Every structure is written in structure tokens, then in C-alpha cells.
Amino acid sequence: MALGSELKADVDAVVTNGKDLVNEEDNNDSGHSSINTPDTTEDKQIDKLVRVTIQPTCGEAFDLHLSDSELVQELYQTLLDREATCHRTCFSLHLNGTPVDNYSEVRAVPGFVDGCTLNVVDEPYTIRDARLHLRQVRELLQFGLNFDQHEPPCTNESQSFLTTINLQPDEKKEPKPSDILPPDHILPGCKDRSLAHLVVPQPKELIALKDIAFSPFNPPPGPRKLKGDVLYIDLTTVENRVYHVTCCTRGFYVNNSHDGKFDPTQSSSNKVIYQSVIELLQTVSAGLKKVYPQIMKRRQEKSLVERLPSSYPVSTWVSNPVKHDSYTSDSLRAIELTEPFRVGFEDHMPGLLRDWNEELQTTFEMSRKSVAERAVRDRSYFKIHADYVNAAAKGVQSILDGNILAINPGEDKKTHMYIWNNIFFSLGFDVRDHYKELGGDAAAFAATSTDLQGVRAFATLEDPKLNTLGMAIFDYRGYRVTAQSIIPGILEREQEQSVVYGSIDFGKTVVSDEKYHSLLEDAAQQLKMLPHTVISEKNGVEEQFKLYTSYEAKGIVGNDGRKYVLDLLRSMPPDVHYLEDAQVSDAAKELGYPRQFPHKLSALRRELVDLFCESRLVAFIQLTAKKIRDVIADAKEKNDEELIKQAAEAESELSVVFLAISEEKEVETKNPIVQNAIKEACVAVHSIFDDHYVMKFNPDCFSSNVKHAPFENLERQRRVVVDAAEYLLTNQIPELIQSFKDCTLQPIDGDSLADIMHAKGINIRYLGELGRRLQDSNSFARPLVLSDIVARSAKHVIRKINVQTPVDQLSASTSHILNCLFSVVSEPSPVPANSTKKAHKKSGKKKTNAAWSTLTTASLWKSICEESAYYYGFSIDAESLDKFTESHEIQKTALFRRVCKIMGVQIVARDYQLDTVSKKSPAFSEDDIVDFYPIIKHHQPFTADAKKMFLRGQHAMSVGATREAYECIGESINLMTAVYGVMHPDMPQCLRALSRLAHVLGETADALNHQHKATIMSERLIGLDSGNTIIEYINLAHFAFGALLIPGSLRPLYRARYLMNLIFGEKHPVMAQIDANIGTILFTIQEFDTALKYLQSSDSISKSIGEPRKLKTGLIANLIARTHAARGDFRAALIAEKETFSIYSELYGPNHQRVKESGEYLRTLTQQAVSFQKKMLNPDSNTNINELFQVQPPPVSALFEILNIINGIIPGLANLAALEKLQNETAEESKATEVAAQLDNETLD
User: Fold this and answer.
1) In what order do the strands lie in the sheet with 117-122?
2) pTM exceeding 0.70
3) Among residues 529, 538, 666, 933, which one has the fewest Cβ atoms lying within 10 Å of its Cβ?
């Protein structure tokens, strides 16, 4: 089979996950600029590559090549990464005998030239240096240990499963069947969905040291301090010997302290002073000396992508079983994790707290005129923001653990506010009835999310002139906690004195400031907000004020002179479908809108606003042009020369007029035809004004709290908002539904579904609308949408219960709730599951009356159904979860995973057998609940230049400029690395695109390398079992197959299939894709029996979900036919190939090459079947069983082409000569004999 001219049109689109959808709000460039001249050299100083020799104090000198724009600090990190020098931390770099400043660029160092030598000079220790040194020693030795069970579940450390998969074959050994054939739980139709396979297998621990502890004799007394003593340390070796060590300014030595007696003088048996603790231990501990090289080897085997911490906190919902006997003592960890006053920066900035607001605003305001300046600004802002989110996450956990005192401790707990580490924390409850009329606690909870959306919107403006607060939202143990940076002086003044713009009494009185008007004008234009005039009454006097935002937005001038804008919860127009008394369109009324909702703060998404305005602009241009064309046609018909002349002038003006309108500039035209056409088009598209096109939104037009000026045309302003909401219902949702049915969008789990909905401008509250439109279809999205409705409704119910549950009952309550949901609990649980009546009598405690204890399966399911109907407008008719999952083909394990992830619950990874659980015994126990972790939402800073380059690369790909696309996306990754560092959640998508381009260009090794990094990043940053990770595994397998790594290509596919079966089930187009890949590769290596199972599974899945018949379907049917033929089952082969012929004929018509090839193959099959039958019916002594199988399978190049089509890649076929040899291997004779015996008595039609 050769690549036909139709391939480009017929290749399936790349599987689209939520992570792959580029949000237009984050990109000010359309991506359609010149591909050949990317704008990345603007005012950019050319970097030079220099070679420098570094002479360390231990080990040999080495050469290093680096850019002269890098900081000297990077050289320090290089020394800390090298095996020979990583254990030494207290040093400085000297050039020509002069110390070099750590934070200066290389090019700025006097005397730094190509070929120079830097000498490492040991520096005297201080307490800070000693503590940092011990932390480095601890981190080095932890490479030999397994994941620490004492660490909180939300940290910057995460694991990758891919590192346990060996892609490279062992050349010394022949591959075993177990290396190639799938394990039982990967086979199609298998119901084994144990979570035990999900977690990363732990290697054997390499214990080099039992403990490092600060001696109780610290701090050094005055006389010893004057002799150079800095710190005293106790080291417990693996030989169970305790060494008392003194850290002095010159290093570390063993002292004479013993048995509680203090003697810091140097031991007579060991008189050496060592520069590092590792060097000291290597002389006193034979165990460490033996194990340390193995630890270093394990460390060096890990790439930077595997071992570097993530920028933001990450967490996982599963954990290895907790074994108390495997707990390790670690005195340094005990200090760091049990002192709530520690903020994490003490060792770096002793005695100081970071001023988060000043750092965030200073970096945000940095110059961004050139690419180089923007890169420095973006890197600084991203680093500060990441540190801020990490600090806030630690603060939230400490607050709910009760370790931080509220600033208003005497008030009700729900009203408590906290200040910790210069961050302000508040709980998501309605404090003092501020939101009473808007929905109470529900409105207060939603206000934080809409406020964050506003902060994100203002942060993405091209040239923001106003400052916003650093903000992050945490959902933890049922609570919503908002973290904000503190405006200087805000705590010292009354609110009335602080606000100079907006309203503090919900619109009753409004203040405004001309200075804010000039700053908000550009922001309002970019965010499509309509300036409007409101009336404020104070002391009986009415006054008019112009607002560019909602009255809820507040302008505050801080003591630092900066102008801040906050409370941006109404930055987007309201969603009238969820305002009970609002007017809606006729189409919305037919669908049951407006409907009741828990709060009145529902707003449309910015993505929808942009899409709606774009569609209206297109409609306006088309209507205007049509009107002028109609005038021209009418003038020609009447032969009116004057009118023809005017119309021709109007037509020539159109391009100028449309350009001015698209750029939101005033249209200057005196042509009456153009003026009339514009007026008619404005009326048709419901423009705000009659005589010129304006499509903007007044966020206050439906608010009853604010009084508008009489000249404001509220009817038209409301009509635009109604039209936008109608556009969501009549355009965006049907388009999304159709994309699901056509399988052009393929979300895998609830997270990717949410990302896709948001990219389309659809709010999560419309899940019920999606569910109603999908519940009677056979689309793969039906179980996904319906299970997400149940999971989110369960979250709402459980969240209210968790808020009322004491900490000491959380494991009991959570296990009971999960049992009520996934097992059958017919009676309430008055006491925790692991308690007994006797124990309660002994303790004197009464039976608890907590809310969770009264739950049963029936009551919980009833609450979930009520919440689904109330919040999502979706009625669940099933009487139980079992009936619901059965009727909609929802997999319980997938629903269980989703519930745990959105609740923030970490559980033990084991087989819960949810689909086969005995109704009499609970599936969960208290010991299965490991911990809770916070769900974090925040504004993620991004590098606009990198996104522009990525979009240009995608555009270049679409026009076939592969090499230019490769360069653009490569430059995008370089920019991301310069800003984010080695890892970031946006980078897997770019690396995947780069891998595909490298594959197309024939650079197989580069493609495999890039994809390997992308997969590890996805696992560590997005999730071990995320939908994005599954896609990365599929691509990795494809490139491994192209690199001739057959077992290495199957193992990622087996992992992808397990994950897919776990988080969704089998009836999904991605599962069909995975099975098609596995079947094709197994067919290549002539494992026909197993290959047939996967190929048939792929075909069956595609048919069951109604996936459209296309080239991929025909190719799989052809492969099934060839597999049957290879097994000797010619009847089945003929049936399958007839289907192939039918598909090709339907797609291409009778004269296409593929149709002719399929017809030829049908004739060949028929001939071979007849010949086979004759020889089987009349065997003789000369009959060779192997000669009966004369149907030759296609060459491997054709099979690889099939994989390219299945996975949506159009490559230049390369590196396939070695694969061709695999086709020449003969099938095993025993297998052929078995097939012949099976067909011996069959008669073919």
C-alpha cells in the first residue's frame, strides 16, 4: 500500500485532549504571521557560547560550555549536580584570584573570556551554610530511599512510572514471550481494574545513614563559638553507632562528646577536619562507603526531568499501602514539618519574611519591550508566583490543621481570617451576610472563582496599567480557602477611606476617579466591557458616575503608590439562564430557562464572549457586504449610472471600513450606501448602537442594586447579553455534541472534559444540558458526562458534610461515605468503623451524632439526585447508583477515581473490586484513607512569546512547512525553558508536536527522545493517570516502533490500555486507537492469535460508539482479514475484507486505488481459500503444511504506514529496512498444524 493523495484529508485528527486546546485569551497573536521571519530577534542581544575550565577542590578539572548570558549561579548548580562535587556546598568561585559575584551575568564578569579557568575555593561555614549543607546531604542520600510516607500529599516531588519501563532491548538476551505478550489484566474485556498497578513500583532501598540530628548541646557556648564552633550534629550510622560531630568554620570533625557528656574538642582517634559530612562518614561508616556509590549511580541515571522538583505543588489520589514498620526516623524532617512558624525560607533568608505583594508587583511591572526583556520579566514573575502558591499551599494546610491563630479568634469559625507569611487567608463563607441576597454561602463560594477569573483576565491584557493581587484558591477538606497578597496599608485604613473607584455597599453609593478611567479604558476595550453611567445617591443628592467595569470592582491606591483593582467577580457578563427573573431568548425558554440556581453570580466565560463577538463581527461584515452587493445589482438592473458609481465607491471603501471596525476604531465614511448598509447590519446583529457597530457588554445591566442613567439604553445592552447566552445554547453546545459524535474531540476523563468545555466557552453548570442531549445516544461521551454529573453532585453533598466533621473522624467519615456510595449501607453508622462499644465506654465518650454517621446508601443517593436536579438541571431516574451505572455503561472504578480526585482524597492503591463487591461487606475501611490534599486554582503566568511561536509552528504545519514548523516549535520550547525551567505543564504538548515533526523529518532518535521527556513531564506534572499521559504513551510507542524497539513499543501501549480501562473503560475511541496499535504491532511480529483479539476489539469499539466509517476503520478491517488469513481462517478473512471493500468504496468511489487493491485481495483470498480446502480434503504424503499458507502479509513499511494513519501522523517513511527482516520469519509450525486441524472438516462456501 502506498501513501495516496487522499491521505492528508483522511488521516484522523490528532487526539484532542483538554490540555491541547490553546486558549485564545492567552494569545494576542493569531499565529498567522510570517512563518519564515518569526519575531524573536527583536532588540535581542546575541548570546555567545564560551568555554570555561572549572577546577574544583576535589576531583579533576572539567570544561564547560555555556552562554555568556547565563548567571554565574548556574555554575554553582552545575557543581552541585556533578557526582564528584555534589557533596560540597560551601564554596565560592574565583577568577584570577578575585571572587565572582553569583548573581551577575557571565558576560558582565571582568576578565571572563573564552577559555578562562575558574577556581573553586572553600569558604568558612556559618550556621546557614551548615544547615544548607545538611539539607543537601539529606537530599543526596534520599535517592537511595523510596518515597517518604511522612511527606504531605501535596508537595513539589512526584514520580514517573515510565522510568520503570525499559524501552531498550537487552542485546545479550532473546526477548521472552513475557516481554512481548500482554499480561492478563491488559487483555480486551478484562474486568481487573486494580489500583495496585497504578502506583510506581519501588526499588530496593539503599540505606546509607540512619539519621542526622541537631545535637541537644546546640547552640555552641560563647567560648566554643569564639574558637570557631558553628553547630553540633549527631550522626547515626547503619552500624547503629552514634557519632557526635562538630561543625566549625573549617568543616566537620568527630568530637569527644559521649553518653550525654559534652566535649566538643576533636577526637584523638580521628583528627581530620572534613569539608563535607559525606567525606567524614566515608571514613567512619563502612556501610555508607559501600552504598554511597550505588546511590550516586541511581541519581546519575535519573535525568533532570525525573529528579527536579515541580514549580507548583502536585498531588496524587493514590498511594502505596502505608506500612508502619517501614517508617524511617529523620530528625531534620521532624523539625521542618512540625514547626508551623516555619515558612520554608529560613535557611536562605534568616529572620526575614518575604513581601509577596512587593515581589509580585515589581516583577509584573518589569519592562517588556523586547523579547529579551520579556523573557527576564516572565521568568522573574513566574518564579515569584510559583513560590507564592507553594507558600500559600503550606499555609492553608497549617490553618486547617489548627496550627495558625486567626486574627479574629473571638468570632465564629466561619468568619475567621488569617495572616501568615505575609499572605491573607479567608474562608469561603458568607461573612456578615454580604451575599445574603445573592445566595448566601453558595454565592460567597462562587464569588472566589469568578474573582479569580477576573484576575486572570486582567493579567492577560497586552499592556496592563493596573495592579491585581496575587491570588490562589484552595479546596481542602470541604473548605474553600482564598489566599491573597496584602496591599500596603490596606489593614491600617477603613474600607471607605481606601476605595476610590467602585462601590462598597453593593451599588447603593458609587465613587469614581478620572485617574482610574484612563487606566481602565484599554482594559475595558480588550475585555469587551461597555462603559456605562450610573447614579449614586449620597445624603439625598444624586450624582452620575461613569464606570468602565462593574460596580463591584474596587479601585484602591496602596501606600506604595500603585493603583490596584480587586473584587473582579463581575468582569464578565451575567448568565441570564441562571437569573430567575431575567429575560431570555425563545430558544432558551423552550429548553426550560431561566432556571433556579443556588446563587446569582453566574457569569459567562471570557472564551464565550470572544467567540460570540467574533461570530457577530463576521455576521455584520457579511450582512454589510451583501447589502452593498444587492444595491449594485439593483443599480445595474435599473441602469442608474449615478447609483452604480456610488455603489462602486462603497464597495471600494468596504475593506477600509471593515478594518476600522475590527480594530474598534471610528468608521469615517460619507457614502450614504455604506452608511445605510451599516445601519441595517447593526440592527440585524443587535449592535449596541444603531449607526455604528459596537458589541460590548454592560456587566451591571441586569443588576437591581445599581441605578443607571436615563440615557443608557438598557434594553439593547440586555439584548446583547441574552444573545450571548443564547449563542452558548444554540451554537456552542450543539457544536460540542457533534464533535463528540464525530469523535473529533475525545475527552478521556472529567478534567479533560472540563478543559474542552471551557475552551468552547461552556460553563460546567451546563453539564446537565450536555447530559440531556447525550443520554439517549451511543456516543462515548455519554457515560463520561453523566458520571461527571454524579461525581460533582456528590462533591457538593460531601463538602457540606466534611465541613461539619472533626479532623479525628475524617478517615471514618470518608470511608463510610464511599461505602454508602459504592457498596450498600442500609443502617447509619453511629460510631467510627474501627471503634467498639467497649472502647467508647472506657473513654467515657458518647456516641457521635456527626452528619456523616446518619448516612445510608439510600439517603446519600437521594441527596445526590436532588443536587443533580437542582444544580445541573439533570434528573436522575435510576433508584440506585448500580442501576444508573448499568443503564449508562458507566464504570464504577472510573467514577470512584473521579470522586476521589475532585474531593482531594488520597487512598491506598489496592483492588477494591467495585464491580464485583459483595453487598454485605463494605469495600472501604478507615485504613484505606491515607490523607486529604488541596485542590489548587490560581492564575498561571505564561510566556506570550512562546505561545506565539507555538501557534506559528502549528500554522506552518497546517500549510506543510514542516522544517519551519520544527524550528518555530523548537524556539517555543527554548523560550519556555528560559522562563519556566526544565518542566512546566505546557511543555508536554510542545514536545509532542516537536516529536511528531522530527518523526516526519526522519529524525527518529530525536522524536523518541522528545516524546520520552514529554511523557515523564505529563506523569509528574499532570498526573500518572491523566488523559494527557495516555496520549503521550501512545505517541511514545509509535516512535519506539519507528526506532525498531518492538518490546519497547508494546510496553507503553500496555500501560496506556491499563490506564484507559481504569479511568474510563473500553468503549472510547482512544481505546480503539490503543487496541489498533497493539494489534498492528503484534501482527508485525506474527503473534496472530493475540493480535486478532486487539484488532477485533478496536473494530468492535469503533462500531459500538458510532465512530464514523473512515480510512482508519477500513485499514483495521483489512488487518483483521489478513490476520484471519495468516491463521488459516479464510471464511472470516473474506467477511472482513468485504467490509474493507465496502468502506473504501463508500469513501472513495469504485475507481480509487485502495478499492482496487481491496478487490484484488478479495480475489486472492478466494483463490487461496479454495486451494487450501482442496489440499486439506485431498492430502497426500508430499503436502507441506506450511505451503498451504501462501497469503503473504503486507511489508512492514505498509504496516508502519497504517500506524501513522491510526495515530494521525504523516511521516517520511525511514529506518524500516531492519523491520522488513521481521516479515521474513516463518510462522511456527505447531501453530500452523493447530489451525489446519481446526479446519480439517470445514467446508468453505
Assistant:
1) 62-67, 49-55, 117-122, 91-95, 98-99
2) yes
3) 666
